Amino acid sequence: MKLWAKLGAAVAAALSATAIAAPVASAAANPYSPEGACANDFGGTCANCVATIKSVDVGTETYVDAGILPKGGTWHDDGQFQYYAAVKISANYQCVQYDGSIARGTAMGSGGRYTWGNCT
Q1: Architecture of domain 3-117
Q2: Please, what is the angle between helix 34-42 and helix 3-19, to 10°?
Q3: How far apart are CA 80 and CA 103, in angstroms?
């Protein structure tokens, strides 16, 4: 599995667990996967990509954030999105951390990995 797919899937899994505790939302399924969001925004490049995929309020603009932190810098994509937020960097042979968050009104869910990994 490519690095962007691993990172995206991990953030999506972490956020899905958080989102389950949120109030009942629309039942619309998100048409994007982490792999699809990264390929959609970045042409399927082999760069490192993190995608936060919404599981509530799908199709409605709400706050979504995706972030990746290589040693020495950080990149985030955050704003009001209907389906996902995705961010791409080139960090070959660099350790990274990643995170993502979604908000619904005053409720917020987040997840990620806050230890260094994916170093090769």
Answers
A1: Sandwich (2.60)
A2: 130
A3: 10
